Amino acid sequence: MGLINADFHTLPELFSSVFSHYRGKKEKFPIARKINGIYEPIPYDSLEQDVHYFGAFLRENGISPKDRVAILSENRPGWYLADMAILNIGAIDVPLYPSLPPNQIEYILRNCSAKGIVVSNMLQLGKILSIWQNLPDLNLVIVMNRLEEPIEDVIDLNHVKDHGRTILENKPWILDGIKVEPDDIATIIYTSGTTGLPKGVMLTHGNLCENVKSCSSVIRLDETDCSLSFLPLSHAYERTGGYYLLFACGAAIYLAESIETISLNIAEAKPTIIFTVPRLFDRMKANMLKQISSESAIKQKIFYWAVKTGELYHRQMNEKNQASITVSIQHNLADKLVYHKIRKKFGGRLRYFVSGGAALPQKIGEFFQALGINILEGFGLTETSPVTNVNRPDKIKFGTVGPAVKNVQVKIAEDGEILLKGPNIMKGYWQDETATNEVIRDGWFYSGDIGEIDRDGYLKITDRKKHIIVTSGGKNIAPQPIENLIIESAFVDQVIVIGEKRPFLIAVIVPDFAKLNEYAAQNSISAKTNKELIENKAVQQIYEKLMRNISRQLATHEKVRKFLLIEEAFSIEKGNMTPTMKLKRKTITEKYAQEIDKVYNALNMVYNTE
Questions:
Q1: CB contact at 8 A, 389 and 405
Q2: Nearest CA to 207 among 223, 222, 185?
Q3: CA–CA distance from 546 to each of 350, 387, 495, 549 (Å)?
Q4: Domains and CATH numbers, the chain
Q5: pTM for this structure?
Q6: SS3 for 298-340, per residue?
Q7: Are strands 252-255 and 273-276 parallel, antiparallel or unpaired?
Q8: 3-state DSSP assignment of residue 279
Q9: Which residue ranges does the record assign to the AMP-dependent synthetase/ligase domain (predicted)?
Q10: Backbone angles phi and psi of 38, in degrees to 5
Q11: Residues 183-208: pLDDT tens digits?
């Protein structure tokens, strides 16, 4: 069936067409959340009603079209409600990661001159109260949780809905006459820039609606589908794919309780599609292999035979479009013995995972495919609303991000940079014409990624042109500001922060050995060489304390979890610095690959046992 109604050009039109279609149909619902251990649905009619109440309250309280209203919340029904209400009155919403510290929230709210903010709970409200005096434009603060005691100038969501109902009764015309155009800005999503100060990506209603339409022609969804949502809605990927696309097709969204409960929630929700990031597959594979290792020798043997059989079967299918009779018979047997049991653990209805936000290791994709679980890897950026490429269900090529979606053009520049064009390309960066002109030239968006297109039109990402780190969880992190904080220490001479395709960041540090030797002398630490010095426990503690102090100033995903001390300084002569004294990140990470892997493996063991 696909889209309920393909004739929408703005998000309010999309919402309205879906609400109209399901009006009075109580058995259908767009969202379900856990209450007292059971998934409870929110019917279309009650969500639509609340959207009108919320919108009426915003209008009555000074929010006009084009005003900015921020959302600082985890994924919960109130997020969808706030988003719909803000967009319906022609205002612009600004999503914020709930992990952000107050100083970064303050920068964003000042930068976009936010007039209002909707926060989830007392923790997030506390951040706003601590910075409110520095935000002259902010005059409306709404908290989703019920307020136990009144707080001056703060209102909770229940009261917002009550007031909204009264406002609509007294002024039934308050939501009339609001005209939203496709070229109007719908949302400003802040992403890390190379300078570290986040830039506000302006996405229009047309950008997002066109991307929803493009995605719907690749991934066929209808009202029999449902998804489990756990990626942050603040991220463009979850917002377009895991929310607008699903809503537009009448699919239900089940909200996961937390990252820790995903496997339990999958079994309960029985999703047909899940939007996720590569990090989840690492975890699932590790858990699967851990479970298998505790089984009997014969069961282990059957499992690994089934994996090998699955890999061989799919290799033959990819190369010749059919598998040999022997392999097909073995594959059917493996399905009965292994694959169907694994599919059952994923709810038994899962058609595919969609993976984005970071690169999916080819071997991981092939491992899951061998077990009968398909992963469609895609590619895009916040600036492209975000999807530009995705693998097709009928032809998956791991190691690529698939062909371009409908309406998107992709070409490779002379230096290998991936250029993109289409109705999904952002309007620009908020109040930053210089940065906008750097990335949008002659109608083409310069992605900052290096890639190549194969003969089937499948795009392969080969490198990153920019220094922005994309973790395996899909977070974009500018390393420079974090490095600047570390280098402030008298004990640090040189540093690079790394974490590309990794679950978290670590710092590779060259200590200031003059300062360190001075410290050693004062504290009776005997060391004949630099190597002995950096291996000393008391010396290690200096850097552990430094990382702890720095982490307090950073968002959760920016925290540096561990460090690696290097005994030799980086230099031009050694080839790990450019003539202009810039550190060569790639060269350094390659040179110390083994040591870096050791740090990550040690950390992974700690994190996996927690």
A1: yes
A2: 185
A3: 45, 39, 13, 5
A4: 478-609 (3.30.300.30)
A5: 0.83
A6: HHHHHHHHHHHHHHHHHHHHHHHCCCCHHHHHHHHHHHHHHHH
A7: unpaired
A8: helix
A9: 38-430
A10: -130, 140
A11: 999 999 998 644 458 899 999 999 99
